[in-house]
DNA sequence: TCGTTATGGTTTTGAAATGAAACCAGTTGT
DNA sequence: ACAACTGGTTTCATTTCAAAACCATAACGA
């Protein structure tokens, strides 16, 4: 049912990641999950997406171990979708997308939602790619090398 | 031609980012660009995707200011697609997707391509979300607040 | 307890996107 | 001059999307 080979070779971890995630809707579902959304109906209202598409996305995300289904936390007979450890591993990616959007798609002073350090209510640092010794690296300072065992 | 309103409200920067990027193919194109790929044919061979789809994605990415078209660097009459400043701003996102894939989709010792600090040939640090004071933050330590002017 | 509404989907169906292949114009190499 | 390469566009069959209708179960209210 779930199509597994859109990005064929997938010797590249980026491709495997995108394959598992599926599409942009899935990333918005994951974003909502980080904001505390857990129920089917909540996701649907928050995202305004068709129920059949949401259903398919959630099914795919569960199949890929990004979400898991748990009994509803309010004691009702319904179920909830919560991020697994693997799913929570996408936090930096979501933050990266958020910061990129903030930096390039909003006019100075234009309103948008904001992600804060809960403890101090301060904005987050911009994500930085760093070398082992702590140097901040740009694309030019990095080098992709072909497949190696033991990476 | 380019559909602009897939994720409707887009008061959220994550949604605006995904809207601009378009889909997973686009992220793989951007990944390839970080690896130095510049020509249409190179992208097409690297990704194994249909030429009409590649054409449409590149057109969209150029329209969103993520790529720009420049004269070929080898002096021929052809053109090349290179990342703009905005496009290069996605570096952390690509690295995030790569690290997530490395962490969750490969068996111990399974071969995959690797991104290194070019200067020392060392692996990169894992991306971390940090507060202004430098603390590493998980999803639970962050709080999304609704639209504010002056973010 | 019975009817009503909310929840969490699935099915149906027309519209849109995808992708393989054929085609084509301009460029480069011989 | 001719052949091959580059960088696409067009065509068309297939797949996916998305809106709406539908439906079963659960919760709620009187």
UniProtKB/TrEMBL annotation, chains A, B:
<keyword id="KW-0804">Transcription</keyword>
<protein>
    <submittedName>
        <fullName>Transcriptional regulator</fullName>
    </submittedName>
</protein>
<keyword id="KW-0238">DNA-binding</keyword>
<dbReference type="InterPro" id="IPR036388">
    <property type="entry name" value="WH-like_DNA-bd_sf"/>
</dbReference>
<dbReference type="InterPro" id="IPR036390">
    <property type="entry name" value="WH_DNA-bd_sf"/>
</dbReference>
<keyword id="KW-0805">Transcription regulation</keyword>
<dbReference type="InterPro" id="IPR002577">
    <property type="entry name" value="HTH_HxlR"/>
</dbReference>
<dbReference type="GO" id="GO:0003677">
    <property type="term" value="F:DNA binding"/>
</dbReference>
<feature type="domain" description="HTH hxlR-type">
    <location>
        <begin position="12"/>
        <end position="109"/>
    </location>
</feature>
<dbReference type="Pfam" id="PF01638">
    <property type="entry name" value="HxlR"/>
</dbReference>
